[in-house]
Design brief:
With 342 residues, the chain is mainly beta. Helix content is 6%, strand content 44%. The protein has 1 helix and 28 strands. It has one helix at residues 2-23; strands at 30-32, 51-55, 61-66, 69-74, 80-83, 90-95, 101-107, 113-119, 127-128, 136-141, 147-152, 159-164, 172-173, 181-186, 193-197, 204-208, 217-218, 226-231, 237-243, 248-254, 262-263, 269-274, 280-285, 288-293, 301-305, 307-311, 317-324, 329-336. The strands form 7 sheets. A 5-stranded antiparallel sheet has the order 1-5-4-3-2, with no helix packed on it. A hairpin with a 7-residue loop joins β12 and β13.
């Protein structure tokens, strides 16, 4: 009986190891998620909702994160979804400027995320941009797709670092401050990197030159928190959230430092996206998708009910996440953008 017990234990142990082994591999799953028409209940995305939505440069794909799996969805009528990774501790996926690669965080067995790059449309071995036991996260691409900036604790506290978007190479420390510098966002023209920092006493936004040829500049001077950086498509302006004791507003300010920041009147906004013209911002507020001019005080345009809106590269469509109470699940919807904001 003791012998049988040992064999039973070994079989069970082997089975568990096999499950762990096979679940660690990525896979490709193909689902026909129709998000323009009404998808079948089995084709919807269960809780929690998909996050980190972004369009590919050509507008043919939407990247998103669903239950720690990175996926892409075709934006044609078929709405085919392909999983680029298996399940795991994946986070912060972002398209490369050319739209052929994706950078992301992946936590190691030690629970520390590293920066990786993966081809989006061909099978290849993912590239480890950082390979050590430091905490590296929130990658952002340079405009030419050759470099990646990210936040790291390798210096003892949060600072911004830059690496080549290839296999592990020499890293450049962009910021070196005893305060926390986090969430870098490279400008579309490649000239500046904006990041969040509490070096002024309150979490605000600062600017740094990727070549370190200019001193770092404070961009926001609020007494309250500023975060959620998004450059305008031409890099001439920056939008961000400003929080006071009661509400969250979207502010817009010229990146050359001229003028005062403008509150566009998007009260209680949660997420947002620029239109390609740089004249409107599409945002989520209280479960509604709205569009607002950055220059006038006109009433916001109601587009749909949902969350997490993103505007297509040509400005013709808007994708967002919508909850269906009947199926207790979420789906990514795509609608035509109002003519007034194109």
């Amino acid at each position: 009986m003791q012998c049988k017990g040992k064999y039973l234990y070994l079989h069970l142990y082997t089975y568990i190891l096999a499950l762990i082994f096979f679940s660690s591999f990525g896979c490709e799953e193909k689902l026909d998620i129709d998000l323009g028409n009404k998808p079948k209940p089995t084709e919807r995305v269960a809780l929690p909702p998909p996050t980190n939505l972004s369009w590919s440069l050509d507008g043919k794909w939407i990247l998103f994160l669903a239950e720690s799996t990175i996926k892409i969805m075709k934006t044609d009528e078929g709405r085919q979804v392909t999983a680029l990774t298996g399940t795991g501790q994946y986070d912060n996926p972002v398209w490369s400027p050319k739209g052929d690669q994706i950078a992301y965080d992946l936590s190691s067995d030690f629970g520390l995320p590293e920066i990786w790059v993966k081809d989006a449309f061909k099978k290849s071995v993912p590239i480890s941009v950082t390979a050590d036991l430091f905490y590296d996260s929130n990658p952002t691409w340079s405009s030419d797709g050759m470099k990646i900036a990210f936040q790291s604790r390798r210096s003892g506290n949060w600072d911004i670092w830059i690496a080549k978007a290839t296999r592990t190479s020499n890293l450049i420390q962009l910021t070196d401050n005893p305060k926390s510098d986090q969430k870098p966002v490279w400008s579309p023209d490649g000239r500046q990197i904006a990041f969040e920092s509490d070096r002024s006493g309150t979490s605000g936004i600062w600017l740094a030159s990727p070549n370190k040829d200019e001193p770092e500049k404070q961009f926001t001077f609020n007494s309250t928190r500023s975060y959620g950086i998004k450059w305008s498509p031409d890099s001439s302006k920056m939008a961000y959230f400003s929080v006071d004791s009661a509400t969250t507003q979207i502010m817009v300010k010229s990146t050359d430092g001229s003028g005062n920041p403008r509150d566009i009147g998007a009260l209680n906004a949660i997420s947002y996206s620029w239109t390609p013209s740089g004249l409107f911002i599409v945002y989520e507020s209280e479960g509604k998708i709205l569009a607002k001019s950055i220059e006038t005080n006109e009433t916001p345009i109601h587009i749909a009910d949902g969350i997490s809106p993103i505007v297509s590269p040509d400005g013709s469509q808007i994708a967002f996440v919508q909850y269906d109470r009947s199926t207790n699940s979420f789906a990514i919807k795509i609608v035509d953008a109002p003519a007034a904001i194109r």
